[in-house]
């Protein structure tokens, strides 16, 4: 065993008392058996034994013993020790309970508390001391802490350096997805039967089959038909990325613009990003996104041509409304700054210090303000499209950042199709992945760019606000949104790995050539798609994606291919929730005539809201007032409430890893649980009704596999109580991550609440 | 939205046909004719809505604004309330008070008259109205808002009259008068004597039944205060240790502030006892026997005694009042707080901070009660405010029974009404300076619990709102008196048509007696049966059914001799004490009342961690069955939007509360 240097008497270790030697002997035989679970292409780079994972700061009582492994995909802590008293774990099939994907690592800190030194490890750096402790800060707000008191000092150091090296790769092709896919291709070459499970259809997962990826002509064609747009056509001039490397190969343009014109115009746009059609309203108004025209001389002329063409594509030849996003919305740096502050607030600072100032600190991050700004702007555009029947152009310098958020939010508000799971996924494919949102840079997978900005999270957060306000309008649950956010940091999927579709093709072709992979006719390697949720979650766990409030009235309006149909679903909605409070509101049931008294958006009691000289503005207010005064049609347009008390912090997303923020047996999930049981019961019953010949039992049996609920009613009168494992963090469990509660006053808290993002040098000396 | 969400809807019968006033035509043409029809209608119409004893003082036609759509109707001022009666609206017989259109005079927090865009006058009692108002704004103390624009065209005098009438009526009404007419209007319909829906704890049988229900075997009901000669603020009966004689009780209680000695609040089925008492009366000079009596009552037969300094870490009464005022100002529709500054403005009220500290303290105490068999004594100088709040919260957290509808009402009746919470003073009905809405703070805490544990409570948010609003409705004596003594004295003696003033009880007129048993819990007097159905939380799905709870084990814990360990719980930590009572040699323990202060950083471990040695917030910790540990960190405390933002419909929006969605399912 390794001898442990006694701590210097002057330095009192607040962190952990030295462990008993007996423990080591006991745990030794166990550790030998510990083997990592590896994915194809995954290799162990370095490992160290006799590591303790700390899950409490002030006691080592609950520490787990095991082996720490760094692979080219993740860091993995392998242990036989069960988590103390844990009853439930939402398992990601790709990751073990204690694993952190390398792309999820934000910062690595090594500490030697005997020498009182610490160092933030970058790639290719040297470490002059043997670490006694490793603290890993994750991008998803987790903190993981390991102690090396009993492990070999050299191997501990090596693992730390390996983690630092592999989590900050210098090249895109070093990300694990390449290795994984390469292996798959090789395997399939040797076993003829295996076809590489790719980024597209054909994989077994349920939703991926239905999610259009917009990589092909036909996907765009189908989307145009679905929205009933006329006057637009799919254009294929960018096939082989001949025109622009940041546009998809196929996109939709006004029919009146010929390929030849487009080719000429394209030179004038930033990034050669010419106008892209996003969506058409049933009234013919279209949503278009476009980069700036950099050629000043041509600007006016081209602008005119484009606008004319869009006008021509409108059945009523309506005007075009242009929205300059750069001028009206916070920029990406501001958003990043807000997010960093939010992270500091939610992660670093122990709550005891901030709780009295919690609300103002939250306000100071400006995160919610920005979420509101995007929702507000999108709602205004909804008014233009829906009420004023104008087509809208989203203009932004490159047209691939803020436009992604705004274009998506407008469509979520307007088109109920995008509130289904498949629809939402297709929206992300269409407006983010294919439109060239720079996931690689904005997620900072390579940890080197200054371009990091959480725009995608902002979009998910804004969607969550809508979900929170209209819980029955969405097919998916907030768990789905959180899991989707997590998936951006698993470097196995091609979906969120690249800056543009072209980059995927180019990089993977290079990689294929270097690895001697036969691509055949394919354009680049087929990476697994995030939408193949079966790669990450079991079928049972995937049912948590479903929103019980939505069940029972799912998407009758989508199938016949026209958006108009969502207008006519009044019939189906009258039986839904929305119809009910109208009759119920006065405390008496059964009367559908309601007093036309609803809430207004006009806030001021006095004086009267000033009439805007600009007619449009007041028209907008009228529109909103009128809209809010009626019950919302959940299969029609939904608009966000924007007042201070209505825009909230997405607690599940930001607090789920904080043990101290967890409310056991509480939180929304307990109501969700109850709802699920009821929804499931309704589901089973209605299926029974639909199969009159089958006995109720058979119907139930056949229904079980079809059930879309995670929680199922076991019988018609299921009286089982709230399961004990439910908590406000469900389905995530913060147990196992470093708990920050009892660290105030200790050296650890000092460096948890410091600068850069995390560190201060007050107590511990930085190495260099 | 159908309930207090906008504070406006749950009380009205659906309006099937509006147009009996012929409003469909253009207003200008019809105005004169309409007015005539309206005035002749008023006789029958308004009177029909009147309660027994209610008199119409003035009225004026107007249009309700601020909500969509604007409603034409009549603004009526009576000696009980201000009502906006929309045209054609028929008051439901089931609901004598509409939570949408009725503003009881005592509920009016602020009155403003507006003329033009700029002239605004705040109307105070006695202040003359300087102009003819075009609009009147009535801010309810329950956060509702009524905004009525008067009709022009020769009706200005009426507008003036009604405004002045409201000012005067409100000034006169700021007394503790009861309008039994509200309950009478419905109580009269049902024949025969009513049985109180919950035991009102006015008889010794009620106390005995409740004691047995709690399984408090080593306690008994003491009739020592039957004549209110121990303390007027205490109920007739209370629970004391079985072995303590009434003479000892009398002796011991004399050494507590206002005679409020230690009584049992709740007996935990695991064996612990939760006691409450007033501060030690430091000026008294007890003899040895007295001290022994006091000690044995505090000890209650346990070897482990924890004294809880109740006010420590909690806001003072002034703080609570100030925070509530600020919160009300913030929640006004014209509040100046910008959307981006909403959070810091909310923080500035400190209301949520106070809610948080109450929850934290209650959570700590419930850990104390649950983790070990001991006697936990809540000590507050007056024993009438925060003791009740904490004791009720602790029971809600630890006793599944208290989370049922009946259980909760019994809890409030016992810990607030019977225990002598000075409702009248605290709710500011008397206009006294000691106003502090401690009870409303408590309801907010309960709402937080309901939010955090939506499946653990049998009652709904709607019920809490109804209770919240009832605090301002002078129909029963429950919230209209400061002590059980006053309540007992009053009930049964007044005539429904007579106004009774707190001052000078001696000159009470004798009259027909109203059933003295009527209380706020007789919901059916004010709410329709549909509304009462909505008091139930459809998501109620308790993990621990109240029946199948812990076995009522009765450990033989009665120990003789002094307690082996005595602690003071303060600032989230237990400090050992040498003795229970302050009189022998050391200075008074609670002589210096601690002010509201944040908890020092050292006590970073929560009490649950200390008690169970495992961070309870891990969620994996096996909590004792039935115990809920609430979240009390900054982000976990929320604003009770449906209550406080009722004056701002735009904030409420048209979303449906989740429990209604559940109902639908």
UniProtKB/TrEMBL annotation, chain A:
Keywords: Phosphoprotein. One of its GO terms (biological process) is phosphatidylinositol dephosphorylation. The keyword Isomerase does not apply. Pfam families: 3-PAP (PF12578), Myotub-related (PF06602). The keyword Phosphoprotein applies. Residues 214-654 form the Myotubularin phosphatase domain. Residues 1-26 are annotated as: Disordered. GO terms for cellular component: cytoplasm; membrane. Belongs to the protein-tyrosine phosphatase family. Non-receptor class myotubularin subfamily. This is Myotubularin-related protein 10. It comes from Zalophus californianus.
From TrEMBL, chain B:
SUPFAM superfamilies: (Phosphotyrosine protein) phosphatases II, PH domain-like. Belongs to the protein-tyrosine phosphatase family. Non-receptor class myotubularin subfamily. Transmembrane segments: none annotated. The lineage of its organism: Eukaryota, Metazoa, Chordata, Craniata, Vertebrata. InterPro entries: MTMR12-like_C, Myotubularin, Myotubularin-like_Pase_dom, Prot-tyrosine_phosphatase-like. One of its GO terms (biological process) is phosphatidylinositol dephosphorylation. It comes from Zalophus californianus. PROSITE patterns: PPASE_MYOTUBULARIN. Residues 201-644 form the Myotubularin phosphatase domain. Residues 1-28, 183-218 are annotated as: Disordered. This is Myotubularin-related protein 11 isoform X2. GO terms for cellular component: cytoplasm; membrane.
């Amino acid at each position: 065993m390794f001898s442990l240097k006694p701590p210097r008497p002057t330095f009192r270790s607040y962190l952990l008392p030295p462990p008993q030697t007996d423990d080591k002997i006991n745990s030794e035989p166990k550790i030998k058996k510990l083997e990592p679970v590896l994915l194809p292409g995954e290799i162990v780079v370095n490992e160290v034994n006799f590591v303790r994972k700390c899950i409490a700061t002030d006691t080592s009582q609950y520490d787990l013993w095991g082996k720490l492994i760094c692979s080219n995909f993740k860091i993995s802590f392998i242990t036989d020790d069960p988590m103390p008293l844990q009853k439930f774990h939402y398992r990601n099939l790709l990751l073990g309970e204690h694993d952190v994907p390398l792309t999820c690592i934000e910062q690595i800190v090594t500490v030697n508390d005997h020498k009182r030194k610490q160092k933030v490890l970058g790639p290719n750096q040297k470490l002059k001391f043997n670490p006694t402790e490793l603290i890993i800060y994750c991008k998803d707000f987790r903190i993981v802490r390991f102690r090396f008191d009993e492990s070999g000092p050299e191997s501990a150091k090596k693992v730390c350096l390996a983690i630092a090296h592999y989590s900050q790769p210098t090249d895109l092709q070093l990300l694990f997805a390449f290795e994984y896919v390469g292996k798959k291709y090789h395997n399939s070459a040797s076993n003829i039967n295996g076809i590489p499970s790719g980024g597209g259809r054909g994989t077994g997962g349920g939703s991926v089959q239905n999610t259009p990826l917009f990589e092909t002509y036909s996907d765009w064609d189908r989307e145009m038909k679905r929205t009933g747009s006329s006057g637009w056509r799919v254009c294929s001039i960018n096939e082989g990325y001949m025109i622009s490397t940041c546009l998809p190969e196929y996109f939709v343009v006004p029919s009146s613009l010929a390929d030849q014109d487009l080719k000429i115009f394209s030179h004038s746009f930033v990034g050669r990003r010419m106008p892209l059609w996003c969506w058409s309203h049933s009234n013919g108004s279209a949503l278009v996104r476009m980069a700036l025209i950099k050629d000043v001389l041509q600007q006016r002329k081209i602008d005119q041509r484009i606008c004319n063409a869009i006008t021509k594509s409108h059945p009523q030849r309506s005007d075009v409304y242009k929205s300059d996003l750069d001028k009206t919305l916070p920029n990406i740096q501001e958003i990043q700054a807000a997010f960093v502050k939010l992270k500091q607030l939610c992660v670093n600072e122990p709550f005891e210090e901030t709780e009295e100032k919690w609300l103002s600190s939250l306000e100071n991050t400006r995160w919610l303000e920005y979420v509101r700004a995007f929702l507000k702007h999108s709602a205004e555009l909804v008014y233009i499209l829906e009420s004023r029947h104008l087509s809208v152009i989203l203009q932004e310098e490159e047209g691939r950042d803020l436009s992604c958020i705004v274009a998506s939010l407008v469509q979520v508000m307007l088109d109920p199709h995008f509130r289904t799971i498949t629809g939402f996924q297709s929206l992300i494919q269409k407006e983010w992945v294919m439109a060239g949102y720079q996931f690689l840079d904005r997620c900072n997978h390579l940890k080197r760019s200054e371009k990091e900005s959480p725009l995608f999270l902002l979009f998910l957060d804004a969607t969550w606000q809508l979900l929170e306000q209209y819980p029955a309008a969405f097919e998916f649950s907030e768990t789905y949104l959180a899991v989707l956010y997590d998936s951006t940091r698993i470097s196995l999927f091609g979906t969120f790995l690249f800056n543009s579709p072209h980059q995927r093709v180019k990089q993977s072709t290079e990689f294929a050539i270097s690895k001697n992979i036969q691509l055949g006719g394919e354009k680049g390697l087929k990476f697994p798609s995030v939408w193949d949720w079966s790669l990450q979650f079991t079928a049972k766990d995937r049912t948590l994606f479903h929103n019980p409030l939505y069940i029972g009235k799912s998407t009758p309006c989508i199938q016949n291919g026209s958006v108009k149909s969502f207008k006519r679903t009044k019939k189906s909605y009258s039986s839904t929730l929305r119809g009910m409070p109208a009759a119920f509101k006065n405390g008496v049931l059964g009367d559908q005539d309601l007093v036309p008294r609803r809430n207004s958006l006009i806030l001021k009691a006095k004086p009267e809201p000033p009439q805007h000289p600009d007619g449009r503005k007041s028209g907008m207010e009228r529109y909103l007032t009128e809209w809010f005064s009626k019950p919302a049609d959940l299969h029609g347009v939904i608009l966000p409430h924007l007042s201070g008390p209505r825009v909230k912090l997405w607690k599940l997303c930001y607090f789920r890893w904080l043990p101290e923020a967890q409310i056991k047996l509480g939180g929304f999930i307990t109501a969700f649980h109850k709802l699920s049981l009821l929804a499931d019961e309704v589901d089973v019953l209605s299926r029974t009704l639909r199969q009159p010949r089958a006995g109720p039992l058979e119907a139930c049996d056949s229904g079980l596999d079809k059930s879309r609920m995670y929680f199922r009613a076991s019988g018609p009168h299921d009286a089982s109580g709230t399961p004990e494992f439910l908590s406000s963090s469900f389905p995530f469990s913060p147990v196992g991550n470093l708990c920050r509660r009892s660290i105030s006053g200790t050296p650890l808290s000092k460096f948890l609440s410091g600068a850069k993002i995390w560190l201060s040098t007050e107590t511990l000396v930085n190495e260099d | 939205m159908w309930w207090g969400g906008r504070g406006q809807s749950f009380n009205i019968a659906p309006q099937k046909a509006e147009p009996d006033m012929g409003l469909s035509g253009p207003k200008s043409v019809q105005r004169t004719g309409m007015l005539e029809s309206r005035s002749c209608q008023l006789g029958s119409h308004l009177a029909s809505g009147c309660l027994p004893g209610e008199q119409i003082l003035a009225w004026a036609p107007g249009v309700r604004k601020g909500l969509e759509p604007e409603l034409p109707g009549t603004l009526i001022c009576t000696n009980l309330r201000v009502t906006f009666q929309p045209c054609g609206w028929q008051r439901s017989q089931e609901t004598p008070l509409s939570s949408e259109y009725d503003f009881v005079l005592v509920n009016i927090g602020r009155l403003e008259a507006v003329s033009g865009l700029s002239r605004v006058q705040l109307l105070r009692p006695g202040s003359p109205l300087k102009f003819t108002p075009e609009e009147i704004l009535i801010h309810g103390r329950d956060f509702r808002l009524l905004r009525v624009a008067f009709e022009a065209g020769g009706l200005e005098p009426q507008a003036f009259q009604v405004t002045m009438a409201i000012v005067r009526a409100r000034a006169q009404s700021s007394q503790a008068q009861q309008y039994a007419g509200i309950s009478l209007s419905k109580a009269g319909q049902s024949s025969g004597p009513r049985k109180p829906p919950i035991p009102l704890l006015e008889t010794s049988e009620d106390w005995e039944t409740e004691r047995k229900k709690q399984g408090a075997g080593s306690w008994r009901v003491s009739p020592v205060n039957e004549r209110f000669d121990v303390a007027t603020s205490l109920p007739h009966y209370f629970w004391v240790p079985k072995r303590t004689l009434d003479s000892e009780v009398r002796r011991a209680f004399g050494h507590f502030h206002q005679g409020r000695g230690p009584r049992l609040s709740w007996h935990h089925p695991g064996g612990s006892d939760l006691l409450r008492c007033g501060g030690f009366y430091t000026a008294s000079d007890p003899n040895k026997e007295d001290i022994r009596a006091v000690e044995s009552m505090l000890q209650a037969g346990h070897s482990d005694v924890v004294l809880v300094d109740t006010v420590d870490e909690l806001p003072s009464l002034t703080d609570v009042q100030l925070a509530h005022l600020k919160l009300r100002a913030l929640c006004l529709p014209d509040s100046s707080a910008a959307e981006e500054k909403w959070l810091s403005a909310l923080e500035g009220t400190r209301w949520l901070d106070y809610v948080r500290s109450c929850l934290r303290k209650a959570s700590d105490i419930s850990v104390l009660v649950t983790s070990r068999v001991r006697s936990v004594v809540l000590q507050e100088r007056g024993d009438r405010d925060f003791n009740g709040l904490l004791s009720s919260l602790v029971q809600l957290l630890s006793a599944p029974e208290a989370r049922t509808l009946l259980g909760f009402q019994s809890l409030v009746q016992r810990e607030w009404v019977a225990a002598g919470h000075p409702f009248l003073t605290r709710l500011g009905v008397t206009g006294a300076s000691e106003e502090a809405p401690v009870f409303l703070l408590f309801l907010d805490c309960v709402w937080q619990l309901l939010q955090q544990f939506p499946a653990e409570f049998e009652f709904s948010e709607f019920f809490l709102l109804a209770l919240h609003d009832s605090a301002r409705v002078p129909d029963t004596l429950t919230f209209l008196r400061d002590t059980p003594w006053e309540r007992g004295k009053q009930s049964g003696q007044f005539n429904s048509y007579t106004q009774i003033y707190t001052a000078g009880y001696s000159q009470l007129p004798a009259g027909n007696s109203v059933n003295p048993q009527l209380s706020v819990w007789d919901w059916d007097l004010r709410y329709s049966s549909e509304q009462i159905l909505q008091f139930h939380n459809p998501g109620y799905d308790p993990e621990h059914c109240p029946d199948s709870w812990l076995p009522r084990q009765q450990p033989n814990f009665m120990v003789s001799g002094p307690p082996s360990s005595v602690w003071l719980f303060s600032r989230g930590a237990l400090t050992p004490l040498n003795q229970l009572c302050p009189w022998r040699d050391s200075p008074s323990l609670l002589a210096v009342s601690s002010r509201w202060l944040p908890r020092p950083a050292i006590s970073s471990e929560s009490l649950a961690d200390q008690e169970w040695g495992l961070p309870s917030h891990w969620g994996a910790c096996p909590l004792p069955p039935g115990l809920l540990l609430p979240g009390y960190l900054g982000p976990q405390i929320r604003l009770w939007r449906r209550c406080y933002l009722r004056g701002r419909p735009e904030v409420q929006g048209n979303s449906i509360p989740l429990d209604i969605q559940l109902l639908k399912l």
